[in-house]
């Protein structure tokens, strides 16, 4: 209900349902990875998450189009989106931290370097080198080879950097009231996002089919798929959000003064692009 100058949204069931759908999806994913079964739960969770996203977006759009939001609500949205992106920064920082720990400390220790170099006694034949193609434990098979950063990874980097540029042009066009220009550049951004997803899928196929890079391929395979996989999920989510923004632009939902839904999607997309630059540098290049 609306009281004074602050709109209080009605009680929503979507946070609870979204949490349940995410839980089912993660349980299914864990079962697939560990027991090689649970595909139905994984699929059910993914469908549930997408359904909750669509229905929750619908409710927010209806509230916005009803004129229920004011300046205070806009500030709440901005703070909420800012803290959400901060949580995402911490999410990826944990995985980058694991990668840096392994490369900077664990592998040199196993090779006999540093204050904990005595661990080299476990596998005296081990040679510390990254990327780790030959794990110290002979029961673990490393990847056959690694990707050259100057082929598909470079193409995807150029695609995402270009998508940030096209999205910025679309945002500026919207602020100037140039709706058709915004629509066209936003459609280009969506197309670039889809191209990234397809190329990432091709790279994953190549990794499993020809490079021997799998989740079981030692620490290199594990960190490769954790970092690039979670980033890929974020690109898919971001592309879905941009498609929703494109549909709203075509329905003339935003104005040059009031378009935080569009602006928030830009924040998210630019964050995803910055993460990929870090991945390109520290997973593929160095």
Please give a quick description of this structure:
This protein has 286 residues and is an all-alpha fold. It has helices at 14-35, 39-65, 71-110, 152-175, 179-211, 218-250, 260-285; strands spanning 2-3, 6-7.
Structure report:
- About 25% of the residues are buried.
- The chain has 2 domains: about 10-65, Helix Hairpins; about 75-285, Four Helix Bundle (Hemerythrin (Met), subunit A).
- The chain is mainly α.
- The chain contains 7 helices and 2 strands, in the order E-E-H-H-H-H-H-H-H.
- Helices cover about 70% and strands about 0% of the residues.
- The chain has helices at about 15-35, 40-65, 70-110, 150-175, 180-210, 220-250, 260-285; strands spanning about 1-5, 5.
- The chain has a two-stranded antiparallel sheet with strand order 1-2.
- It holds the Pfam family COX3.
- It is found in: Cell membrane; Membrane.
Regarding CATH, which class of the largest domain? Mainly Alpha
Sheet-strand content, in percent, reads: under 5%
Cα separation of the termini:
54 Å
**Based on the structure given, which CATH architecture of the largest domain is correct?**
Up-down Bundle
Oligomer: single chain
Structural classification? mainly alpha
Protein name: cytochrome-c oxidase
Subcellular location: Cell membrane; Membrane
Enzyme class: translocase
Transmembrane segments: 12-34, 40-58, 79-102, 182-202, 222-246, 267-285
What does the secondary structure layout of this molecule look like, with pairings?
Layout lengths: L1 E2 L2 E2 L6 H22 L3 H27 L5 H40 L41 H24 L3 H33 L6 H33 L9 H26 L1
Antiparallel strand pairs: 1-2
EC number: 7.1.1.9
Subcellular location: Cell membrane; Membrane
Main location: membrane
